[in-house]
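Thread: heme C complex, take 2
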Amino acid sequence: MRLETRWWALRLAAAIALLGAVNAGAAEPSAAAGKQPPRPERTEAERVALSRELRAIYSRQPTAWPPPQVDPGVEWRELGRLPEVVHPETNSYSMAKAALGRTLFHDPRLSASGKMACVTCHEPLLGWADGRRVSEPHGDIPGRNAPTILNTAFMPTLFWDGRAASLEEQAEQALTNPREMAAVPDRVVALVADSPGYRQLYSAAFPEAEPTFAGIVAAIACFERTVVGGRSRFDAFLAGDAAALNDAELIGLDLFRREARCLNCHHGPTLSDGKFHDLGLSFHGRSNEDLGRYAITKDPADKGRFRTPSLRNVTRTSPLMHTGMFELRGVLTMYNAGMVTLKRQAYERNDPHFPVKSPLLKPLGLNRHDLADLAAFLHALEEPKPPSHPPAPPPLGDAQPPDPSRP
Ligand code: HEC
Ligand code: HEC
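Output below.
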């Protein structure tokens, strides 16, 4: 345990040093606010009394919960259970289509190398992510942590920088991106068309239609919309099972909504506002710079902004953040410090477009117990592990074999 703690401290220190960021004495005015000393710990008796009080309050309907601590102007939505998924009219749901999509999702033969499937980086047993810092590249480095595909049906935009507007668009990009699967659409269509097994799945999904790349992409997106959570202990609690959360988780829920200010960005049923914020993780001006949303919009105000991720099942998808540099404990420690404030180099001192950390982030002054309670609440958002019975890839027909010279 002690060793683990030391390891944590080291990792966090290394991460912060890497960021080239300091809190006290940096050029940013917000850093002057500096560290806030942690508030005193509660006694055991105080904790018991508090959790009894909170249990009475939070056992009521969310509409009767105390108002959250959000800043003026933030359009927040209460936490809650996930709604039903709405499949778009242009890609309506059928069981056969989702089954085809699921098989394709697991099939590495779609990729140029024949070795990389969607599931390689979005593994159900790893929370539909890949457990790596940044996902294993195909040749060049994509350089970002693979997010989960769980609940992406509810996301208004896809990718850390929101560059895809729909799961269809996203799946097409993931397939054809030379740095991901580098799939060649004609080859993918030929693979499906020439395999009797795939033909059968395809014609069940799209009766009387010849396989097309758009159909293949649509099936994958349709499958992804079936990858939905909603069976966490927090969901059971919301559904009226007051015993589903223990005391620490309950105190954590209250902290999340109020003193820890998380609801400013992580709200609604997915615990994401779907918007873009700068948490100070852009590495501006460094070799590993990633300006996030700015690369898409070219609006200087978007420099360093990334889409707020859902926090459902987040405890299964470490390492975290778009950089994949942190574990949960490190993330919470950084939020408690008001996140990192990038230091301006001398030549950047008057740069009007220097990325600005979100003003919604402030030092929180939470103590060790508080952070453990927050973490406990996030653990209560864990989904049961999905059963993993990967579908068997249908035998190949006469389709061309993958080209091994491709990355
Ligand atoms: C090499 C690893 C890799 C493979 C293979 C891969 N992905 Fe991803 N996926 C990523 C990474 C990394 C990101 C984030 C990239 C970014 O934001 O720029 C991502 C993002 C996504 C997202 C967006 C999630 C969100 O919250 O916005 C979805 C959905 C997704 N991938 C689905 C797929 C599908 C479908 C396939 C197969 C066609 C696939 N991925 C193949 C690594 C991979
Ligand atoms: C200003 C908006 C904002 C606030 C306030 C905020 N977050 Fe976040 N959160 C984000 C964004 C944006 C990211 C992704 C940032 C990135 O990768 O660069 C994120 C990422 C995370 C992650 C990592 C998720 C993953 O899948 O990698 C966790 C965990 C998290 N936040 C928890 C919290 C908690 C707990 C609080 C309250 C203490 C909080 N957040 C407050 C916007 C916010």
